[in-house]
Each structure stands twice: as structure tokens, then as C-alpha cells.
């Protein structure tokens, strides 16, 4: 297969994962300050399956689509005001989280263990970005920001990290064997 066709498939998968993030964002459990959503699960899946480059591009594309007004953010919301609002830090945090998950896996191995560690790192990065942003934009104390924007999401985040790792590795292996996904770097280590 030519490099152009591989790149086209990667771009299609990137767009597909941007859509998947938007769909999973609609799975919400409301909490007082910040709802629990399926977005972080989708971010973990995108990074675990696509790697750092295309996973990050899918997160960026998702944010652009939402910023221009397509209702892909939680609870079918959209607009640049969501990104700059009190919960916007979580959205912005998806970019470094996705990159770090994919990068970690590319530098280690695409195994369940490493995918779980990578997704835990991504969860923590997202929560840190979100909590800092929440504290500043909502003018909260650090205690209130951590209590409302970090602590309630740790256990759920660990569960989502495990689920993203497990599903991501399974789907990645199947896409690779079907030749629908290609390793973009010669140093990317696949699971044995």
C-alpha cells in the first residue's frame, strides 16, 4: 500500500475518533461542578489505538468542531465559551493527555500493562489541567477546586483508564491485522 493511502486511512481514523469522542461525550453523570463524561474514555481509546500523532490530532479536531458550534461537548453543548468556561481546562487537557498516552506507548510497548499506565498518566494530566483551570476561572480556593474538580474523578478515571487500555489494545491489534491501521514509526513496539 502506498504512503498516500496509509496517510488517508490514518486521517479517516483521526476524523472517526473525533466523532467517537463527541458521541461518548454525551454519556454524562451530572455532578455539582463538573460532570463525569465518556470523553476521557474516548480520548484514551484514540491515543491507545492511533498513537501520539493521530490521537492528538483527533482530540484537536474534536475541540475545533465543538468550538465552531457543532454540539459535540457534554450535554450536546458547543462553542468557544465552553472551552474558556470553568470546565474548559479538561477539554484543553485532552491535547497533552492524548499526546502523552500515545507517546508513552510508542516508547514502550502496546501492551495492556503499558496502556493502563499510559492512560493513568493521561487521566492525571487531564485532571490537573481541569482543576487548575476550574480554580482560576471560577475563582475557587485550591481546596474547593480539588474537592470539586479532581477528587470525585479519581476512581472513575482509574476505571476508564483500565477500560481504555483493554479495549484500545484489542481494537488496535484488530485494526493492524486487518491492515486498516499502520504503525507510523519504525520504533513503535507492538505487543508480542
Average the pLDDT over all residues and give the rounded result: 92
In whole angstroms, how far apart are the ends? 24 Å
Enumerate the spans where pLDDT stays under 50 for 5 or more consecutive residues.
none
Protein structure class = mainly alpha
Q: What's the helical proportion of residues?
A: 55-70%
Multimer state: single chain
- What does the main sheet amount to? 2 strands, antiparallel
Number of strands: 2
Fraction of residues in β-strands: under 5%
Series of secondary-structure elements, N-terminal to C-terminal: HEEHHHHHH
Global geometry:
globular
Q: Can you list the strand order of the major beta sheet?
A: 1-2
DSSP helix count?
7
Radius of gyration: 16 Å
Characterize the structure shown.
With 192 residues, the protein is mainly alpha-helical. Helix content is 70%, strand content 2%. It contains 7 helices and 2 strands; from the N terminus they run αββαααααα. The chain has helices at residues 3-24, 39-67, 80-84, 88-107, 112-137, 142-149, 154-177; strands spanning 28-29, 36-37. The chain has a two-stranded antiparallel ribbon with strand order 1-2. Helix 5 (112-137) crosses helix 6. The protein is globular, with a radius of gyration of 16 Å. The two termini are 24 Å apart. The model has no long low-confidence stretch (mean pLDDT 92).
